Amino acid sequence: MKAVNPLITKASARSSVLSDETYAKIKEMIVTYEISPGSKVNIDALSLRLKTSQTPIREALARLESDGLIKKEPLKGYSATNLLTLDEFHDLFQFRLLIEPWAAEQAAHQITADGKKILISEMKSTIKSLKQKNVDEFKSLTEHDARFHKLVAQLSGSKSVESAFERTHCHLHLFRLFMAHRLQLIENNSRAKFVEWMFENYYQNGSGQLAIIEHSAISNAIIEGDSKAARASMHSHIQSSLKRFSSSVE
Where is the HTH gntR-type domain (predicted)? Predict the structure, then answer.
């Protein structure tokens, strides 16, 4: 058996970590609107900004292209994708209404002890992390949103559904919409209440967080094996999300 050179192994590991870090940094720049939708992405400029070579930059851009955050065009190079149009927004939610209620129903049908533990852990950790109304909390809740829906897709047992949901990258697009509006707040005081509106209408309802309440209903139905309630709760949740976010793209 041929011995593995430890120096090569360590170099490969460092390269992988650097690639992941570069990907995370550029992704953060895009979703927080530092790289604005539709703007050109210059590899040399990013290399200088992030103090790294072009190789991890190119690797990161390829990954971000698969995420739907970057596009590459012949003779034009890389640019950040535009925000969702109204038609794309509604198309995304219609797709979710087709697959996610079914996924929740199937998850309830075949939930395991381990699956229950993962769902409970996700809900508990998110509730504990809630602190105050700011962008970081919105981002944290958006990340929970993505994890929760991905988890339900996984628990459905369908690799096709899980893969289809992941390819939508829907929560990344929703967070970009939020950040785009936040930038407009700085430039236009007439929209100074948008952030407050977003929290009140998307994440809060009286004394509790609306999205968390809805996720809890879905989670409880799955854990209890109530497939009918799981499907109905997920359908209601996505319809509510559609209504709450519609104004940000209209």
Answer: 16-83
